[in-house]
Amino acid sequence: MSAAYSLIHGVGFNNGKYPLKTKEDKRIYRVWYNVLIRCYDEKYLAKKPTYSGCTVSENFKSYSYFYEWYSNQKCFKNIDENGNSWHLDKDILLKGNKIYGEDTCVLVPSRVNILLTSCKGRRGLLPIGVSFDVAVNRFRSSCWQNGKNKNIGRYASKEEAFQAYKAFKEALIKDVANEYRAQLDQHAYNALMNYEVNIND
To answer: What is the DSSP letter of 133?
Structure first.
């Protein structure tokens, strides 16, 4: 890297190979810039601690490399049901991954991103998909589906409630993956079809 380039968030650099001429160019730059923010901006990390420890691969630190990688993805021009471009995801190919890089990232619709969000910070100590229904003194299993909280059932133990959630959620993920199969990158499709929900997610 030339010393003439000023670093973006201390790590990223743009050699000017791909100037921001078109709306598409600006979109790619915004995706790249936002990845750097998630990983290296202290104010952002204070608000979004789930990104703590995330890093960017050496190649992704270069905007020109990122531009070429991103624009060559199968899903690069895909638009979701709301008219939005697909999201860059780092967790689908490798669950729990903390590195944004050419070998770990794929593009997916926001629906898939939301489907795999665990919301761990908001649910307390119970397993994912489980809450306690005080009115009937049983554990409730539920899952978000098509924008609504789907009730799966009520169970005597949190473990039973989680197993019901796990079965429902894994089937739902497969259904959504098959809906997008023709559009998804094959690696992303395979990862979704093999996705396992764990009690500590």
So the answer is: E
Retrieve residue 35's tokens.
Answer: 């990845």
Give residue limits of the domains in the chain.
111-201
Q: How far apart are CA 163 and CA 76, in angstroms?
A: 36
Q: What end-to-end distance do the CA atoms of the chain give, in Å?
A: 39
- pLDDT tens for each residue of 94-126: 999 999 999 999 999 999 988 887 666 555 789
Token code pair at residue 157: 């133990």
Please give the model's pTM, rounded to 2 decimal places.
0.87
CA distances from 36 to 61, 69, 82, 130 (A): 8, 16, 26, 34
Q: Which residues contact 125 (CB under 8 A, 6 or more apart)?
A: none
Per DSSP, 154 falls in state E
In terms of DSSP H, where are the helices of the chain?
23-40, 42-47, 63-71, 110-115, 120-123, 158-179, 186-193
State residue 186 phi and psi, 5-degree precision. -60, -35
Can you point out the beta strands (E) in 81-127? 87-89, 99-100, 106-108
